[in-house]
Write a structure and sequence with these properties.
The chain is α+β, with helices and mostly antiparallel strands. It has two domains: 147 residues, Regulatory protein AraC (Jelly Rolls, Sandwich), CATH 2.60.120; 111 residues, Orthogonal Bundle (Arc Repressor Mutant, subunit A), CATH 1.10.10. The protein has nine helices and six strands, in the order E-E-E-E-E-E-H-H-H-H-H-H-H-H-H. Strands 1, 2, 3, 4, 5 and 6 form a six-stranded antiparallel β-sheet that branches. Strand 2 and strand 3 form a beta hairpin. Helix 1 packs antiparallel against helix 2 and helix 6 crosses helix 9. The radius of gyration is 19 Å and the shape is globular. The relative contact order is 0.12. About 2% of the residues have low confidence.
């Protein structure tokens, strides 16, 4: 099945051993043991696993044993997760959340259910009437099932429960100040702890450093502005508190791998852009 904006493929895990990134959203389905690397942060996986990635995240799947990986790829032009957020609340749950794990284990029943929808998608004839609607329906079912299963892993809806109370405070402070304050020492001072103590606690909880979290917040907000609004790159640079467009572009390319203008060209401007004027 070939489509510029929507496809399902099956590859060996060797295919994803090297860094992979493109303009699509991805849903990976596989059974095995190994590591997922997302923007250079490692996560272990065991057994039947589903894994989600957003456009131009740098990802790898590393497994000692070769495993089959099913991948559903979709572009925002085919299905905008922001536009459809009322139907399937996956944005911030399955995609685009820097605090939540990007993957989780599935029961055999749910794994087979999602795999069956992958197969149904491959059987759809794109030349038939309403094929686009049928494909979107299958995608929504996969997203809904995945959201349901991930919600089961977050029964209290609290992202942080820890004896180190500053963790939640750190989250709140980053969300409040990340546009103007990108240095770790600023947050450590407000929390009355050393930068080293804060780094160790955050790293233990989220598998990434506080500096990585701050960077990811900036990049995530930048991606939203580029994709979900019609603002110029210069305007976005100003809103994100960069000295000028050049410094913003350099920062963005360092962490994403492409320039902001190229990101906009590849991902397009969302159909919900007019809602963000």
């Amino acid at each position: 099945m070939k489509n510029t904006f929507f496809s399902v493929q099956k590859e060996s895990s060797e295919y994803f051993r090297n860094i992979f990134a493109d303009s699509m959203y991805h849903i990976f389905l596989f059974d095995g043991n190994g590591k997922i690397v997302v923007d250079f942060v490692e996560y272990d996986f065991t057994g039947k696993t589903v894994f989600f990635s957003s456009p131009f995240q740098n990802i790898q799947i590393v497994s000692e044993a070769q495993i089959d990986v099913e991948v559903l790829n979709f572009h925002s032009d085919f299905y905008c997760i922001e536009f459809h957020k009322k139907e399937v609340a996956c944005n911030g749950l399955l995609f685009n959340n820097i605090y939540l794990f990007p993957h989780f284990s599935l029961t055999e029943q749910v794994y087979l259910e999602i795999s069956e929808y992958f197969s149904k998608i491959q059987e759809v004839n794109h030349n038939e009437d309403f094929s686009g609607s049928v494909l979107q329906s299958y995608l929504q079912l996969i997203l809904a099932i995945s959201s349901r299963e991930k919600n089961k892993l977050l029964p209290d809806k609290e992202l942080i429960k820890d004896e180190f109370n500053e963790l939640k405070s750190f989250q709140n402070l980053v969300e409040e100040h990340f546009l103007s304050e990108k240095n770790l020492s600023f947050y450590a001072d407000l929390l009355h702890v050393t930068s080293n103590t804060l780094s160790k606690k955050i790293k233990s909880k989220f598998n990434k450093t506080p500096s990585q979290i701050i960077q990811e917040m900036v990049i995530l907000e930048a991606k939203k502005q580029i994709h979900l609004t019609r603002k110029s790159i210069k305007e976005i640079a100003v809103e994100l508190n960069f000295n000028d467009e050049f410094h913003f572009s350099k920062y963005f390319k360092k962490y994403v791998g492409i320039s902001p203008s190229q990101f906009r060209k590849e991902t397009g401007i969302s159909i919900v852009a007019d809602l963000y004027k």
